[in-house]
Amino acid sequence: MQAPTTGRRSIWTAAATLCVLAGALTLGVALDKQSDPPPSPAPAGNLPAQAPSMIATGKGMPPSPPTTVQIPDVDLNVPLVPVRISGSGQLPLPKDRERASWLASSVTPGERGSAILAGHVDSADGPAAFYNLSAAKPGMQVSVARRDGTTARFTIDAVAVYPKDKFPDALVYGPTPGPSLRLITCTGWDPDEREYRDNVVVYATPHTKHSPKQ
Asked: Which of 24, 38, 123, 155 is a plausible cystine mate for 207, CB 3.0–4.6 Å?
């Protein structure tokens, strides 16, 4: 299923694939590493409109690939690598479990439109890049360092949980009238099926103008 286009860009939904892969690896975490389960998300906040206006509310920042995402309140500090959706609709994720992906067919964080970041919650070696993402709450700050030396700064507006077979492509991936950020990982471990049932999506919008690195 193809998600709506943002300008000349388009993306394919891959959230379900993300959770199947992460869940398949989680059995190793539970048995071999005796890791605590990841935080349970608490859905809250105001979701964006289902059909956002295409009228620009702000030009946003110029394009620049992201390098790192931070949410200090949940101790999340993760390097990012660019990826593109495969021909089969799968979302590649870094082999290094401590890194997450920026979907390069989306805008860069800080540009007008929806920037997409995704990462595994865990792996056979233990917690992965977005292990703590489910602990995020509205009002928390997100910083995305960019290659040009600037930082895109966001405030979390909402946290939502969706069954992987009912993922709202248009809402998550669709165009927005200003810069926006979505961070995606898995939640809802099913021990019988040995996979995650759900996705957690963190929605954020800018709270200040960008600033250079110090």
From this structure: 155
86: its two tokens: 């495969």
The answer to whether position 45 is within a domain reads no
Q: How far is CA 108 from the centre of its chain?
A: 13
- Report pLDDT digits (tens) over 21-79: 444 333 224 334 446 778 889 889 888 865 444 344 567 999 999 999 999 999 999 99
190 within a domain of the structure (yes/no) = yes
**Domain span at residue 192?**
15-39+64-206
SS3 content of the chain, % helix, strand, coil (to 5): 15, 40, 45
The pTM for the full model equals 0.81
Look at residue 202 and give its three-state secondary structure.
strand
Q: Say if residue 97 is exposed, middle or buried (CB neighbours under 10 Å; 0-12, 13-18, 19+).
A: buried
63: amino acid identity, one letter: P
Which CATH number do you get for residue 80? 2.40.260.10
Cα torsion through 43, 83, 193, 97, rounded to 10: -90
